[in-house]
């Protein structure tokens, strides 16, 4: 369990108050998500010990790293929090190899953890070892920074918008490595980001922040189904995240069947083996509803559902909460459609899912 | 080309300038670091104090040294009484006066390079388990090495030419404290000494130019070595 309670005031014009409090399960990846300037990076700095908050408490699995009330503040160099910064911060005067070994050489003796070779293999950075950071691309730098943090034998990995400084191709290059690191080492990770696809891809737990405060915290799946969080529900790519499993493949028709707690989805053929856990995001704008069982449709997925609630969204739009078995889907429809179809809570409808976005494979279920 | 006496003045100048840099450099790096990274009351005052020799008449600096480090001065008396060290009218005294005069030059050069070091790198080293001294030695110091080197060379080149503070504090004793500029001054005061003055001035000019070129070259070389594109 990572417990965190922080209060910090930045004085002066544009100053703001950070007042955040949450706890998230470990091991696992907790994403702190929010717009720029919401205080999420400050929060990460305070966990790392690089910023001393006015008041607060940080504890990891019962071990107290900071408790201003008790006068405890473990210095950053003793906290064993590996940090991957947005700008990599590789030491320019050292080779990639020496950069990688910097933390390892300073880590307490006798701690278990991966060796240089294992990390280098995992991150695919072997050819870079003799180079200087100036000769690396942005994506390569982030991979080396990730390796350097991993090798310092951290008890917690802190990722401060690790992909935000990269262009789209570089992001796509580095993201899978973050997932590999998550799957290989059962390290608690705190990911600060303002990119929802990183959350979908990597995080188990989500903490939503705005203007220095925590709006909501919970599993990614649970928060994605909430309509009262404009930070999520107001987005163009708003939609629920579903934990699915591959049921079977139909190569002849080019379809894969996915099972989720409320039913099944047919999606274009996937190459994951049967039984693989997959996480998908069903965007609200990709779901429409029908009051009768539709016929003669190109859409593959028509799921019987019960309309639970109608929430106003943008002007002349409504967000529908649809109960599908044990799961919830969101659908964004026009206000006119709501009136025309006579939609009201409790009616039976068919949810038509036009497409789903694949978010990647979720973390293998944590023990306990 | 040069007479033995003139060579002696050149040798003495080099020795004095070298010593002033050797002894001045460590405190200059420390002060530069305090000024660049420190947050303490009196920082502005320290900054002003360090820069005083740049703006005060060198004679005043020499006189202050005389008052402080003279045999009857508070520090000078103590040094003489306890260790038998006399600074006035000695080569060591000339080095001290030179060191004080070139101190702000070195501090400025080091501080400029410190300001160019991203504090984020030190924070990164911290998160990787490096304590304060470790961070300074393995991250900060290598990255400011070009600044330290160029500061040292500039300080050395400037030290070769220090006149006012040296003549006031250490006097103008041939073979002891008569450095190049003092020898040039003496020559101009001697009837028929124009040729000597011209020769020594030429030497002085050559040394200064060589020093400045060397500082630039060394800075570039080191920058490349440290993995940064030369400016």
From TrEMBL, chain A:
<protein>
    <submittedName>
        <fullName>Molybdate transport system ATP-binding protein</fullName>
    </submittedName>
</protein>
<feature type="domain" description="ABC transporter">
    <location>
        <begin position="2"/>
        <end position="236"/>
    </location>
</feature>
<dbReference type="GO" id="GO:0140359">
    <property type="term" value="F:ABC-type transporter activity"/>
</dbReference>
<keyword id="KW-0997">Cell inner membrane</keyword>
<dbReference type="InterPro" id="IPR050334">
    <property type="entry name" value="Molybdenum_import_ModC"/>
</dbReference>
<dbReference type="Pfam" id="PF03459">
    <property type="entry name" value="TOBE"/>
</dbReference>
<dbReference type="InterPro" id="IPR004606">
    <property type="entry name" value="Mop_domain"/>
</dbReference>
<keyword id="KW-0500">Molybdenum</keyword>
<dbReference type="InterPro" id="IPR003593">
    <property type="entry name" value="AAA+_ATPase"/>
</dbReference>
<dbReference type="GO" id="GO:0016020">
    <property type="term" value="C:membrane"/>
</dbReference>
<dbReference type="InterPro" id="IPR017871">
    <property type="entry name" value="ABC_transporter-like_CS"/>
</dbReference>
<feature type="domain" description="Mop">
    <location>
        <begin position="296"/>
        <end position="362"/>
    </location>
</feature>
<keyword id="KW-0472">Membrane</keyword>
<keyword id="KW-0067">ATP-binding</keyword>
<dbReference type="GO" id="GO:0005524">
    <property type="term" value="F:ATP binding"/>
</dbReference>
<dbReference type="InterPro" id="IPR011868">
    <property type="entry name" value="ModC_ABC_ATP-bd"/>
</dbReference>
<dbReference type="InterPro" id="IPR003439">
    <property type="entry name" value="ABC_transporter-like_ATP-bd"/>
</dbReference>
<dbReference type="GO" id="GO:0016887">
    <property type="term" value="F:ATP hydrolysis activity"/>
</dbReference>
<dbReference type="Pfam" id="PF00005">
    <property type="entry name" value="ABC_tran"/>
</dbReference>
<keyword id="KW-1278">Translocase</keyword>
<dbReference type="InterPro" id="IPR008995">
    <property type="entry name" value="Mo/tungstate-bd_C_term_dom"/>
</dbReference>
<dbReference type="InterPro" id="IPR005116">
    <property type="entry name" value="Transp-assoc_OB_typ1"/>
</dbReference>
TrEMBL record, chain B:
<keyword id="KW-1003">Cell membrane</keyword>
<comment type="function">
    <text>Part of the binding-protein-dependent transport system for molybdenum; probably responsible for the translocation of the substrate across the membrane.</text>
</comment>
<dbReference type="GO" id="GO:0015098">
    <property type="term" value="F:molybdate ion transmembrane transporter activity"/>
</dbReference>
<feature type="domain" description="ABC transmembrane type-1">
    <location>
        <begin position="10"/>
        <end position="218"/>
    </location>
</feature>
<keyword id="KW-0472">Membrane</keyword>
<dbReference type="InterPro" id="IPR011867">
    <property type="entry name" value="ModB_ABC"/>
</dbReference>
<feature type="transmembrane region" description="Helical">
    <location>
        <begin position="196"/>
        <end position="218"/>
    </location>
</feature>
<dbReference type="InterPro" id="IPR000515">
    <property type="entry name" value="MetI-like"/>
</dbReference>
<feature type="transmembrane region" description="Helical">
    <location>
        <begin position="12"/>
        <end position="36"/>
    </location>
</feature>
<comment type="similarity">
    <text>Belongs to the binding-protein-dependent transport system permease family. CysTW subfamily.</text>
</comment>
<dbReference type="GO" id="GO:0005886">
    <property type="term" value="C:plasma membrane"/>
</dbReference>
<keyword id="KW-1133">Transmembrane helix</keyword>
<keyword id="KW-0813">Transport</keyword>
<feature type="transmembrane region" description="Helical">
    <location>
        <begin position="83"/>
        <end position="107"/>
    </location>
</feature>
<protein>
    <recommendedName>
        <fullName>Molybdenum transport system permease</fullName>
    </recommendedName>
</protein>
<keyword id="KW-0997">Cell inner membrane</keyword>
<feature type="transmembrane region" description="Helical">
    <location>
        <begin position="136"/>
        <end position="158"/>
    </location>
</feature>
<feature type="transmembrane region" description="Helical">
    <location>
        <begin position="48"/>
        <end position="71"/>
    </location>
</feature>
<dbReference type="Pfam" id="PF00528">
    <property type="entry name" value="BPD_transp_1"/>
</dbReference>
<keyword id="KW-0812">Transmembrane</keyword>
<keyword id="KW-0500">Molybdenum</keyword>
<dbReference type="InterPro" id="IPR035906">
    <property type="entry name" value="MetI-like_sf"/>
</dbReference>
């Amino acid at each position: 369990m990572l417990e965190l309670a922080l209060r910090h005031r930045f004085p002066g014009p544009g100053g703001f108050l950070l007042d955040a409090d949450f706890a998230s399960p470990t091991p696992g990846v907790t994403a702190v998500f929010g717009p720029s300037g919401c205080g999420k990076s400050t929060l990460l700095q305070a966990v790392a010990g690089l910023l001393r908050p006015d008041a607060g408490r940080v504890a990891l699995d019962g071990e107290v790293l900071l408790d201003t009330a008790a006068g405890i503040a473990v210095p950053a160099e003793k906290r064993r929090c590996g940090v991957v910064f947005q700008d990599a911060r590789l030491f320019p005067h050292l080779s990639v190899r020496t950069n990688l070994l910097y933390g390892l050489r300073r880590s307490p003796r006798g701690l278990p953890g991966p060796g240089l070779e294992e990390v280098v293999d995992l991150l695919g950075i072997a050819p870079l070892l003799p180079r200087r950071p100036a000769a690396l691309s942005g994506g390569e730098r982030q991979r080396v920074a990730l390796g350097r943090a991993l090798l310092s034998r951290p008890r917690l990995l802190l990722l401060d918008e690790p992909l935000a400084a990269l262009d789209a191709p570089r992001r796509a290059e580095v993201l899978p490595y973050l997932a590999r690191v998550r799957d290989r080492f059962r390290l608690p990770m705190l990911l600060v980001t303002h990119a929802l696809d990183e959350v979908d891809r990597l995080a188990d737990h989500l903490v939503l922040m705005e203007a220095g405060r925590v709006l909501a915290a919970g599993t990614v799946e649970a928060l994605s189904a909430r309509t009262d969080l404009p930070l999520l529900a107001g987005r163009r790519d708003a939609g629920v995240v579903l934990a699915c499993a591959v049921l079977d493949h139909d190569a002849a028709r080019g379809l894969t069947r996915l099972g989720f707690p409320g039913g099944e989805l047919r999606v274009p053929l996937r190459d994951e083996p049967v039984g693989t856990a997959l996480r998908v995001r069903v965007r609200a704008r990709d779901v429409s509803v029908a009051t009768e069982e539709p016929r003669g449709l190109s859409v593959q997925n028509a799921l019987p559902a019960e309309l639970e609630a109608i929430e106003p969204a943008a002007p002349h739009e409504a967000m529908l909460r649809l109960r599908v078995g044990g799961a919830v889907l969101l659908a964004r429809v026009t206000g006119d459609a709501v009136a025309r179809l006579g939609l009201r809570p409790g009616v039976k409808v068919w949810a038509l899912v036009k497409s789903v976005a694949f978010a990647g494979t979720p973390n293998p279920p944590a023990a306990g | 080309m040069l007479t033995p006496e003139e060579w002696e003045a050149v040798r003495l100048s080099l020795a004095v300038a070298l010593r002033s840099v050797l002894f001045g450099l460590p405190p200059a790096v420390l002060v530069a670091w305090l000024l660049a990274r420190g947050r303490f009351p009196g920082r502005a005052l320290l900054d002003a104090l360090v820069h005083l020799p740049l703006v005060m008449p060198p004679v005043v600096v020499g006189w202050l040294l005389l008052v402080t480090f003279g045999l009857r001065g508070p520090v000078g008396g103590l040094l003489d009484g306890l260790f038998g060290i006399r600074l006035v009218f000695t080569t060591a005294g000339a080095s001290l006066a030179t060191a004080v005069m070139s101190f702000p030059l070195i501090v400025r050069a080091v501080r400029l390079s410190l300001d160019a070091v991203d504090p984020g790198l030190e924070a990164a080293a911290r998160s990787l388990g490096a304590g304060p001294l470790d961070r300074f030695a393995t991250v900060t110091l290598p990255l400011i090495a070009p600044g330290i080197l160029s500061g040292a060379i500039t300080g050395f080149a400037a030290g070769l030419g220090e006149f006012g503070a040296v003549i006031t504090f250490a006097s103008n004793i041939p073979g002891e404290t008569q450095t190049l500029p003092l020898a040039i001054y003496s020559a101009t005061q001697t009837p028929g000494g124009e040729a000597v003055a011209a020769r020594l001035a030429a030497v002085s000019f050559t040394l200064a130019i060589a020093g400045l070129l060397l500082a630039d070259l060394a800075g570039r070389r080191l920058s490349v070595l440290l993995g940064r594109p030369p400016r």
